[in-house]
Write a structure and sequence with these properties.
Blueprint lengths: L9 H16 L4 H8 L3 H8 L7 H10 L5 H12 L16 H12 L2 E5 L11 H10 L5 H11 L7 E7 L13 H13 L4 E6 L13 E5 L7 E4 L6 E3 L2 H17 L3 H12 L5
Helix pairs in contact: 1-5, 2-3, 4-5, 7-8, 9-11
């Protein structure tokens, strides 16, 4: 049996946040919008916070009342509002991964572009199967096989989304005594990924200043119109996610700062080949 969520689904939160953004753009008090819909103030507040489900017809009606003049955007929000929760290929992992992690997986699967940086390891979307297995079997986990399968399934998004990954050169110096040859396998995976038109890989060199990229792993996701970008900060519990424009803009600037210190794409590709050929120890 699927466990009941302790927090609203990410879909409901995003729908509510978008509706609130449109309402605030015209400086309409929430009480006025609630009265226009014939709702109580508490109900309207719960809709905007994602705690109360709103259907397609209600989204269209509310958008008309607050003057949203963007039919394409209204249709997109209405479509997502109508989708039932607990659907998608990731639903089968609901009892095997944290809510925060599954929220991230759902967001990632809908993204049109993904930017990610990790100060220690290879980003998950370009990890080889052996690297994925090593990371999960060596870490504390009650369901390593499920988490391995989930991470590998996530990589399907690279068939359609733009991906920009910043990879620390130090990750290539990791030693895996239990899996000889793992790093060569991983380097081949990165070289193959770098050949994809939608993938940009940059290596953060060992000589980069230690302050660059030292604040932890993060991922920035962008989506089709009208959804605002989402930034995710990684942690062992599955991460925290924000779509606050100011916070996302700050993290976007941080990502670009790290990217500016990384090697250009062509030099990064050459360095991967050099490591594969054993030119760096």
């Amino acid at each position: 049996m699927t466990q009941k969520r302790a927090t609203p689904s990410i879909k409901r939160r995003r729908v509510g946040a978008q509706l609130r953004q449109w309402r605030e753009a015209i400086e309409m008090p929430s009480g006025d919008a609630a009265r226009a819909m014939g709702w109580s103030q508490p109900r309207f507040s719960r809709v905007e916070r994602g705690y109360y489900r709103i259907g397609r017809a209600e989204v269209i009606d509310l958008c008309a009342k607050i003057g949203v003049d963007d039919p394409e955007a209204v249709e997109e929000v209405a479509r997502v509002a109508e989708e039932p929760t607990g659907t998608g290929w990731w639903a089968s992992y609901a009892d095997k991964a944290s809510e925060a992690y599954l929220d991230f997986v759902e967001l990632e699967a809908e993204a049109t572009s993904i930017r990610t940086v990790h100060p220690k390891v290879i980003p998950g979307l370009v990890q080889s199967p052996r690297y994925v297995r090593e990371m999960h079997t060596s870490a504390r986990s009650n369901n390593p096989e499920s988490l391995i399968a989930l991470r590998l399934a996530r990589q399907e998004v690279l068939s359609r989304a733009q991906f920009h990954g910043l990879i620390p050169e130090s990750a290539f110096h990791a030693e895996f005594e239990s899996s000889p040859g793992l790093m060569k396998d991983q380097l081949r995976k990165l070289i193959d990924a770098a050949e994809m038109e939608n993938v940009t890989l940059q290596i953060l060199p060992l000589k980069a200043h230690p302050s660059v990229g030292s604040n932890g792993a993060m991922t920035i996701l962008t989506f089709r119109h009208p959804w605002t970008p989402v930034a995710s900060i990684d942690n062992p519990m599955g991460g925290s996610h924000t779509y606050d424009p100011a916070q996302v803009a700050y993290l976007e600037a941080e990502f670009e700062n790290i990217a500016s210190s990384a090697l250009p794409v062509d030099q990064s590709r050459d360095l991967l080949s050099e490591y594969l050929e054993g030119l760096h120890q």
